[in-house]
Amino acid sequence: MACSIVQFCYFQDLQAARDFLFPHLREETPSGAVRRDPSKSNWEDDGWGAWEETEPQEPEEEGNTCKTQKTSWLQDCVLSLSPTNDLMVIARGQKAVFLVPKWKYSDKGKEEMQFAVGWSGSLNVEEGEHVTSALCIPLASQKRSSTGRPDWTCIVVGFTSGYVRFYTESGVLLLAQLLNEDPVLQLKCRTYEIPRHPGVTEQNEELSILYPVAIVTIDGFSLFQSLRACRNQVAKAAASGNENIQPPPLAYKKWGLQDIDTIIDHASIGIMTLSPFDQMKTASNIGGFNAAIKNSPPAMSQYITVGSNPFTGFFYALEGSTQPLLSHVALAVASKLTSALFNAASGWLGWKSKHEEEAVQKQKPKVEPATPLAVRFGLPDSRRHGESICLSPCNTLAAVTDDFGRVILLDVARGIAIRMWKGYRDAQIGWIQIIEDLHERVPEKADLSPFGNTQGPSRVAQFLVIYAPRRGILEVWSTQQGPRVGAFNVGKHCRLLYPGYKIMGLNNVTSQSWQPQTYQICLVDPVSGSVKTVNVPFHLALSDKKCERAKDMHLVKKLAALLKTRPPHLDLVETQMKELILDIKYPATKKQALESILASERLPFSCLRNITQTLMDTLKNQELESVDEGLLQFCANKLKLLHLYESVSQLNSVDFHSDTPFSDNDLAVLLRLNEKELLKLLALLEKYKEEKTRTATVRFSDDKDGVLPVKTFLEYLECEKDVVNVKKISEEEYVALGSFFFWKCLHGESSTEDMCHTLESAGLSPQLLLSLLLSVWLSKEKDILDKPQSVCCLHTMLSLLSKMKVAIDETWDSQSVSPWWQQMRTACIQSENNGAALLSAHVGHSIAAQISNSMTEKKFSQTVSGADSEALTDSWEALSLDMEYWKLLLKQLEDCLILQTLLHSKANTPASKVSSVQAEPLPRLSVKKLLEGGKGGIADSVAKWIFKQDFSPEVLKLASKERDAENPDEPKEGINRGLLEAAEAETTLGAIPDLLHLAYKQFPCSLELDVLHAHCCWEYVVQWNKDPEEARFFVRSIEHLKHILNAHVQNGIALMMWNTFLVKRFSAATYLMDKVGKSPKDRLCRRDVGMSDTAMTSFLGSCLDLLQTLMEADVSRDEMQAPVLDTEDAWLVVEGPISIVELALEQKHVHYPLVEHHSVLCSVLYAIMRFALKTVKPLSLFDSKVRTSEALRPGSEPRAQQARAGQAEREEETGYTCQLSLCMHLSVSRPQAILQVQDKEVLASQLLVLTGQRLAHALLHTQTREGMELLARLPPTLCTWLRAMNPQDLQNTEVPIATTAKLVNKVIELLPENHGQYSLALHLIEAVEAISLPSL
Questions:
Q1: Using alpha carbons only, how large is the chain's radius of gyration in Å?
Q2: Which of 20, 61, 683, 829 has most Cβ atoms within 10 angstroms of its Cβ?
Q3: Is residue 925 exposed (0-12), middle (13-18) or buried (19+ Cβ within 10 Å)?
Q4: pLDDT confidence band for 242 (50 / 70 / 90)
Q5: Residue 761: is it exposed, middle or buried by C-beta count within 10 angstroms (0-12/13-18/19+)?
């Protein structure tokens, strides 16, 4: 493996970001208008306010400069990328763009990650300030379910005003801090890293901010807690609307850097501790031989700056507030350190109104003074000016760039320059740290180093990445003194991004829970709009003149180049490849080389075999200790597969032909069938073949059946522990592999016995071979049906496989199911090629019967006498559970074959009459599909075929006329009506009536005429509902509905059609026509009903036919019994959804008057549409009770209509009885009328209402003084109830109060005591008695 550069992300619209940050670079149209791509709609208009600004045009002499800036604009921006790649910031001046990654499909249909705009706008708060630096810091989640994962990303931005502001991903300002009044030069971050060994000091997290003469460091833990608190407060403020929230305080340290002219960049090394020798050396130089030191060296924070005078400066700040040591007196900071440590930051900016913010900004907060910190030493070079510094991941090295075009490598601990690169002006630098993979470490025999075994610790390598924009080259160097290991031409306008930190908020526990996918270094290319990263293998750190791995990689490259060529002499190429693969030292690289050779398509089989055999022999001749077992086993497995390929190829190439003649009699004996059964089977297969040939698509002959390239063969198979298995491959690849093994054998062109022996000895299991054999047989149905003698070959092959070891368990009992035969039956059940499946099932049944008989004969021979055993003849068959399953499968496959033959057949229908829906092919059938399709699955399949052919219902009658002749008692309605149509159809149907009759005979229950008509009716209405413009589908559905003879089924299907498909459209049509008062126009019909005016006319006519049929069925269903739905014996185990007919039989009775109302309404609607009537409102033709009654609304469901109509009928009956009783003053004959009412409670409630109306009329409407006094004495509940009564509904108001009193007593008798109105009736008795006393 070599160093590589990989693209991992793209920009969705980088040009729009450039136009936003650099308005003068926007391309303009000839008219001067700003060009804006309408397809780029992902940018919010609110964020691009600067686009509306008018920018002054550049002078013509600056045209070249502007053109250059259009490509190099990214060099002038502040750029930052989160180490978790979930946010990128591009800023310039006062504006910034936040980009977030999203997974989207590219133009090629491949899913890829693209950076899209998440937020854009201006960041400046004070006038005139600009962005100078930015960081994207991911903060760790505190949830238990996502420990160690990033929760959100904070954007830290430094400004020329000295402010440092913190934002969310959506651009919300969290907090701002004025730490120094000078411009912010650089922002850098350090996050937690687990120490690699106990000698490394654990570093704390911090954010460091560089100013021209000061460094401010913010403790990471304090910053993490403050940012979390601010984010929570922002969320609360957004929810509550309160914006005046005071952010929490922040602790920081501030150091004033002294004895240095200018500072451009810095690096915070972290806490370090001097060794005892360095401590004594420093004390001696400063204090002389009388200097004293403490036992433990103090901890110090180290900072390195680059600039001028000195070129690099080294600063050391003493940690803690204890008395400084003598060795550090020269620093002169100990006495002043206490006042500067952990001061609370002042000058916070809250979320206030604009006026309040302006007032705060005018009064800048107090800035704390810095603690002086003098430079201890540096690299003095008065002419050299440093430009940037980049610290290595393990804090031991640092790379510095200067204005002389040099890159200098510093040893951080010793403070010296250890290496220099020349010719890198304006260079951008970064680091890559690679950890060794212990699995790739291979010890040499003489390697006695502590790292010579895979149990030692992983080594770490550091590579320096240098991007030289002036040369457009990206280089990777091994440090400290290593060579260049990679170089890439990347363009001259890129930006190299090296964050140098990871997730903030982790510790030694949470950092181990989850390792985020991070890229240590990224290259942003604005020209191609992509983001790239560099992959460096660890072994490149070992690259020197004696490195074996580097030599091996060179040999692998040479081998790859050799494989791509087309040399004239293969022998010479084979020799060169052998030399190359033997010269490779590392076993893993040898395996990689051998894999590339075996995957080549240009090398012949002999070359692959010879190279693999040579490598195998070389490994065997080596000492056992120095041989890699994995490589040896890999070679042995590949060699075994190559030998298998060679053996099978030789067997397939041998000219082998069987001269044995094959007749129908031989086939009958082979399949254990008599002559009649054989003729029936051949006739079914011949019909199936004819119909399938008519509908088959064009298929080109495949001359490569049975041929498989060796490369593909090795890709399909794998060998492990002397067992050959098939990898997870597709169905087509599985068939290709099976054809390579068995296709010649099935054609009788190869020896079946030799092939089985070869495959068995190679280690392929019988179950795997059976699966491959059946996949070939079932997929090559056309070729098999054309060559019947292939059945004999299948019989021979299957017999040999069944006799293999572990194929059929020796302990198999006849009363249990054999897994071997169950595997074969399962394959036949799942196959959609029913002809081949039926033949293979017959072969399997024959062999299973033969084996079962022989095993039973053995058992009998041990228990019975010899004479009895001789009585067993060939016609005798042992009874076993497997045989019963075979017979069931044969019946199911035969049924499925007949049904599939019917579905393959087609009538000569004119193409103009066929819609696009009808032209779609039907899915193929299998026994499994029929078993899972439910009891109505067979009829549903035939109904779909009838819909595709668009047959008249009379065709189904015509096909069943023989059944009608056998059953003369069945009604013959409709036959005479369709004789002419059926006679015309018969001339173009061909063999379809015979096939239909055969299907009827095979499925007497599932394809019973009423069942078939019901499914056809439903299929047509379903297809009509998908496209209402096809009105003929609905008409045909009604025709099938009328042909259903059983009224129960007819009623249920009609009711289901109304509920599911028609009621909403009918309701919409009714209200539309009532609204416009005439036949609506096409536009209104399409808008409200979803169909054209022509289609709606046909729709209303069909609805009228349906309602008429529904009424006739409702009348006729009482005169006949509901049908009994049976299922054929072979299909009793079907599972799946409930059939349409069963659902139809579950439907309840309809309310005949209600259906009649709908029929009248439908007739009116149809007449309006048919004759284009005007000024007719259909609903106005009905009285108010009908219009307002909920039961008569066209949109209400018939079930609910039936319930409500029944209740309305009972209430009408009760009200009639009540009025009759009152009018006759409850004479002697009237109580008999009361006794005729079944619902006594409803009657009592109605009588109670009438009583209340009488009392309300007497008390409230007469307005007498006595009545008012009596009303005042009544209970409040009774008064409220009386006031709610409407006496205007009374037909007779002059009823004596005594009669009303008797009526109330009758109500008391009818109401049970637990009734809700019983107490109200008692109050009424008291009120009536009170009224009758004063004789009002």
A1: 47
A2: 20
A3: buried
A4: low
A5: exposed
Structure tokens at 9: 């992300």
Q: CA distances (Å), 1298 to each of 1320, 1327, 1328, in order? A: 19, 12, 8
Q: Which helix (H) or strand (E) holds 919?
A: helix 916-919
Q: Which residues pair with 522 in a beta bridge?
A: 497, 533
What integer is the mean pLDDT of 460-471? Answer: 93
pLDDT digits (tens, 9 = 90+) for 1203-1245: 444 444 444 444 444 444 444 334 333 444 555 566 677 778 7
CB atoms within 10 A of CB 65: 11
Residue 619 has pLDDT above 60, yes or no: yes
Give the span between the Cα atoms of 1054 and 1062, in whole angstroms. Answer: 10
pLDDT in tens, 364-382: 677 888 889 999 889 988 8
DSSP letter, residue 960? T
Residue 1260 to residue 266: CA distance in whole angstroms: 98
Tell me, letter by letter, the H, E, C secondary structure of 700-762.
CCCCCCCCCCHHHHHHHEEEECCEEEECCCCHHHHHHHHHHHHHHHHCCCCCHHHHHHHHHHH
What is the separation of C-alpha 1170 from the centre of its chain, rounded to a whole number of angstroms? 51
Count CB-CB contacts under 10 A for residue 755: 21
1082-1127 pLDDT, tens per residue? 999 999 999 999 999 999 999 999 999 999 999 998 888 989 989 9
Per residue in 1124-1160, pLDDT (tens digit) is 989 999 999 999 899 999 999 999 888 888 899 899 9
HSE-up of residue 211 (Cα within 13 Å, Cβ side):
23
Instruction: Quickly state the pLDDT bin for 932 (edges 50, 70, 90).
Output: very high
Average pLDDT over residues 259-267: 94
**Residue carrying structure tokens 């850097």:** 257
Per-residue pLDDT at 641 exceeds 60: yes
Q: In Å, how far from its chain's centre is CA 874?
A: 59
Token pair of 963, please? 């059944």
- Note the pLDDT tens digit of each residue in 796-850: 999 999 888 777 766 666 678 888 899 999 999 999 999 999 999 999 999 988 8
Three-class secondary structure of residue 569 per DSSP: coil
What are the strands of the beta sheet with 416-421, ordered from one edge? 386-391, 397-402, 407-411, 416-421
Which residues have C-beta within 8 Å of that of residue 532, sequence separation ≥ 6? 5, 6, 7, 8, 490, 522, 523, 525
DSSP 8-state symbol, 313: E
The per-residue b/e assignment along 82-91, b for 16 or more CB within 10 angstroms, e otherwise, is: bbbbbbbbbb
CB neighbour burial string for 1107-1127, b if at least 16 within 10 angstroms, e if fewer = bbbbbebbeebeeeeeeebee
Within 13 Å of residue 223, how many CA atoms lie on the same side as its CB?
Answer: 31
Which pLDDT value is given to residue 1094?
A: 94
Are 499 and 507 in contact by the 8 Å Cβ rule? The answer is no
Task: Give the Å distances, CA to CA, from 1191 to 82, 1059, 1133, 1210, 1292.
Answer: 67, 15, 43, 14, 29
- Residue 660 pLDDT more than 70? no
- Up-side HSE of residue 597: CA atoms within 13 Å toward CB? 29
In degrees and rounded to multiples of 5, residue 344 shows phi and psi of -70, 130
Sheet containing 312-318: order of strands: 262-273, 299-308, 312-318, 377-379
pLDDT reading at 443 higher than 70:
no
As a whole number, mean pLDDT of residues 891-906 equals 91
Q: Is residue 109 left, alpha or beta, with left meaning phi > 0 and alpha meaning psi from -120 to 50?
A: left
Give pTM, 2 decimals: 0.60
pLDDT at 987 over 50: no
1306 within 8 A of 1260, measured Cβ to Cβ:
no
